[in-house]
Design goal:
- The protein has about 200 residues and is α+β, with helices and mostly antiparallel strands.
- About 35% of the residues lie in helices and about 20% in strands.
- A hairpin with a 3-residue loop joins strand 3 and strand 4.
- About 35% of the residues are buried.
Amino acid sequence: MPLPLLWLGAAAVSALAVKGLADDRKYQQSSRVKSYRAKTLADLEQYESPIATYPTDMFSTEQQIEPIVGAIVCCGIGGVLEHSGIWIGDNTIIEVDGNGLVKAVSAQRFTHTRSGKSIFIACDSLGTPLASELAAQKAIAQLYQVIDYHLFDNNCHQFIWQCFQSDVKAITTFKALSLNLAQLFDRVIYWDKCDC
């Protein structure tokens, strides 16, 4: 008999956590519309994260942003991981697949074999995509090359970072990519739904 009670308790805790996340997302969205300039890292309180909203299909996203060349995009994988790429225009994204092949795919193909239904784009608090045409050119220059892909050590996030910064900094997670992009652009990051 104690096992069903444990399940009920876990379900209640989960429901409270989801409500808390939804409330935080609403707060982040409402506070960003009050701003007249892009929120920088200097604007953050000591306890605040430079990643204001993460990409998720679970909660609705009010902002629908049109991508520009060199924008960073992502989608979900299995509800646990994210896959990232670079928008190069004309409904095309450069990505690294699980075999290490750098390839160009359509927005529909980007999400086709992954569980995420939506594509998200890294933006500042004003809804301006964080982008670099030079990064897009670097990604295009690597098309059809095969990198030594590894899920944790040399993945899609590492590829994106190396298109933006040619340093040897190891970027192994989506969070690390987001934090480094926030520092590079000096912007608080909002992962808004891509209008693509």
